[in-house]
Specification:
Layout (H helix, E strand, L loop, with lengths): L2 H15 L5 E4 L2 H13 L7 E5 L3 H8 L5 E4 L2 H16 L13 E3 L20
Parallel strand pairs: 1-2, 2-3
Antiparallel strand pairs: 3-4
Helix pairs in contact: 1-2
Length: about 130
Amino acid sequence: MSARAQATSFIEADITSTPALSGVFTANTVTAQGVTTGLTHASKAGKVKMVTFDAEPAEVQMLKSNIAQLVIAQEPAIEGSDGVQQAVNAIEGKTVTATIPTPLIAISSANMTSDQQYIYKASTSGC
């Protein structure tokens, strides 16, 4: 069973076992797509609030459709730059930083227009 199908199955089971379920968090695009399918099948889209991680086109569409209420965007350029710098440090025998915090941006329907720079221009699913 695919991850998307599993997410659909899990959310449908959660809704059945917990009819008062009020919210769900999805950690990636594929899970968000599966949860969206499950919420839609159960007529709970927009009623069970969804927060998802990543701001790919699919999640932004969920936000626009009020299926998701919050999308958490990363700063992939900063993550990439930090990763390359740490690789260079390792190659050159310099100190490598074990943990580097990355800024996260909460995008909702209220700030979607003003925070366009954080919305991914293409999908990274499958990477």
